[in-house]
């Protein structure tokens, strides 16, 4: 038997479900649940502000991640309720930590696609890539501005040159190019 106390509101059934569907240990799960609820409202859900604060605590070394967490909120909020519940958090976070690379890329594509039209446009790639660069404290090296470089990356990803990047173009290009992947896919 685990010595860790199970928080009230967390049932043994829920624990079993998450243990079966994630790579987490029982201890990690209970710890995440406790941390999550420290930031949650009485309804046990996070709104965008609380979500950003929660992530800042979770990733205290990535102080500049705020813009990215804000942009990623809707992708965690699968049912589009405006709140993230623990289940939504665990499903996405587990996928990002333990999922295969293709599933992770598909998830990240949804963050890039801010307006949900199933494609990344030039503006979206600028906003998200800059937020990731900021979070990772990276700059793109060279004489050009980051804007110009990101624009070049956009063109690399846009195989059929129709000025938008589909999920397939994004995933395939990132799978085949470590440089693009390191740049465009955050480590959460
Ligand atoms: Ca939700
Ligand atoms: Ca879009
Ligand atoms: Ca295209």
UniProtKB/TrEMBL annotation:
<dbReference type="InterPro" id="IPR011992">
    <property type="entry name" value="EF-hand-dom_pair"/>
</dbReference>
<dbReference type="InterPro" id="IPR002048">
    <property type="entry name" value="EF_hand_dom"/>
</dbReference>
<protein>
    <recommendedName>
        <fullName>EF-hand domain-containing protein</fullName>
    </recommendedName>
</protein>
<dbReference type="GO" id="GO:0005509">
    <property type="term" value="F:calcium ion binding"/>
</dbReference>
<dbReference type="Pfam" id="PF13202">
    <property type="entry name" value="EF-hand_5"/>
</dbReference>
<feature type="domain" description="EF-hand">
    <location>
        <begin position="100"/>
        <end position="135"/>
    </location>
</feature>
<feature type="domain" description="EF-hand">
    <location>
        <begin position="64"/>
        <end position="99"/>
    </location>
</feature>
<dbReference type="InterPro" id="IPR028846">
    <property type="entry name" value="Recoverin"/>
</dbReference>
<keyword id="KW-0479">Metal-binding</keyword>
<keyword id="KW-0519">Myristate</keyword>
<comment type="similarity">
    <text>Belongs to the recoverin family.</text>
</comment>
<keyword id="KW-0677">Repeat</keyword>
<keyword id="KW-0449">Lipoprotein</keyword>
<dbReference type="Pfam" id="PF13499">
    <property type="entry name" value="EF-hand_7"/>
</dbReference>
<keyword id="KW-0106">Calcium</keyword>
<dbReference type="InterPro" id="IPR018247">
    <property type="entry name" value="EF_Hand_1_Ca_BS"/>
</dbReference>
<feature type="domain" description="EF-hand">
    <location>
        <begin position="145"/>
        <end position="180"/>
    </location>
</feature>
């Amino acid at each position: 038997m685990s010595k860790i106390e199970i928080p009230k509101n967390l049932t043994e059934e829920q624990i079993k479900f998450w243990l079966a569907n994630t790579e987490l240990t029982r201890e990690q799960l209970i710890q995440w649940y406790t941390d999550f609820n420290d930031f949650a409202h009485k309804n046990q859900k996070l709104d965008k502000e609380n979500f950003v604060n929660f992530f800042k605590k979770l990733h205290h070394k990535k102080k500049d991640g705020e813009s990215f967490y804000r942009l990623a909120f809707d992708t965690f909020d699968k049912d589009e309720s405006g709140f993230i519940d623990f289940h939504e958090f665990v499903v996405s976070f587990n996928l990002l930590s333990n999922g295969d690379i293709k599933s992770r890329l598909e998830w990240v594509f949804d963050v890039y696609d801010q307006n949900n039209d199933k494609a990344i446009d030039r503006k979206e790639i600028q906003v998200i890539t800059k937020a990731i660069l900021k979070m990772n404290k990276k700059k793109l090296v060279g004489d050009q501005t980051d804007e110009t470089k990101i624009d070049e990356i956009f063109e690399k990803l846009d195989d059929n040159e129709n000025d938008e990047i589909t999920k397939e173009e994004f995933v395939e290009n990132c799978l085949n190019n470590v440089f693009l992947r390191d740049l465009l896919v955050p480590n959460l």
